[in-house]
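Appendix C: a fully annotated inverse folding record. The material below is reproduced so that readers can follow the format used throughout the book. The structure is listed first as tokens, followed by the designed sequence.
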């Protein structure tokens, strides 16, 4: 295989040459928003996903920690297995899961798939829990810093959001291992069975944070999907008071980050999230 067409750096290619024997590049599955390269590679032993990124990419260490530190093992064959990694070169190799991406397929709005998503996520969350007295403080401070970054939130809205966060007095919360981007873009479905991918936003957070994308993208318009998810999860992890703050923080982060990476559709979503979140105040 000629890695020169892959967009990888020399040290990343050198590492992959030590991992694979006569590999073939099947497809480039990169999203294109960040500097992460996602490659479908095949050799005599099977199919793999290669994920490589730049030195400043925050997603790489999170995904590596999720796999290397054993957090993903609780899901068994419902998620990928880490095959090899080079932390310095910032490249990892995962076994490639079968199935079809739920996003853009009939599975995207299938209540049974959303029920499975609740069940799988509950298993991931339940493996650990601890109290974090500073989590909400950090999120409040992060939101305020983000409002100082370039964005296209209108001035009156930004000032209102800033005033709300500055007046907020956070409290300790329970944090669990979270996926961080839990919705159909990161679900595969293989013969009706949901599989999970992409732990680039893995972190210890309140369980409810893994509901934020689903709530905005699906539950507002399809309440039957919310019911199916919660049926699979077994309870609603959202505390109403904390939830409104988490939604507001997520909305700010989405609008500012999407603007920074020039994703206008995602930025528009962030702006909608912000308007919706503010109705709770």
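Designed amino acids, in order:
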């Amino acid at each position: 295989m000629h890695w020169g067409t892959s967009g990888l750096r020399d040290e990343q290619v050198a590492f992959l040459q030590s991992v694979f024997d006569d590999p073939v590049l099947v497809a480039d599955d990169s999203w294109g928003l960040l500097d992460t390269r996602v490659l479908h590679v095949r050799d005599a032993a099977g199919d793999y996903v290669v994920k490589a990124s730049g030195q400043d990419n925050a997603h790489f260490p999170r995904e590596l920690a999720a796999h290397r530190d054993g957090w993903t093992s609780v899901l068994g064959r419902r998620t990928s297995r880490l095959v090899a990694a080079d932390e310095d070169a910032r490249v990892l190799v995962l076994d490639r899961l079968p199935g079809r991406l739920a996003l853009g397929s009939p599975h995207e709005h299938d209540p049974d798939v959303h029920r499975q998503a609740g069940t799988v996520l509950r298993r991931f969350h339940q493996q650990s829990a601890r109290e974090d007295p500073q989590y909400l403080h950090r999120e409040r401070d992060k939101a305020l810093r983000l409002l100082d970054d370039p964005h296209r939130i209108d001035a009156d809205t930004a000032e209102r959001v800033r005033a709300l966060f500055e007046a907020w007095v956070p409290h300790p919360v329970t944090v669990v291992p979270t996926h961080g981007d839990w919705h159909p873009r990161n679900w595969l479905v293989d013969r009706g069975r949901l599989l999970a991918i992409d732990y680039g936003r893995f972190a210890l957070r309140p369980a409810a944070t893994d509901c934020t994308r689903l709530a905005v993208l699906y539950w507002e318009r399809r309440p039957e999907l919310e019911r199916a998810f919660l049926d699979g999860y077994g309870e609603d992890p959202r505390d109403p008071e904390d939830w409104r703050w988490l939604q507001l923080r997520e909305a700010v982060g989405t609008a500012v980050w999407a603007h920074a990476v020039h994703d206008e559709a995602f930025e528009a979503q962030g702006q909608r999230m912000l308007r919706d979140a503010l109705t709770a105040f």
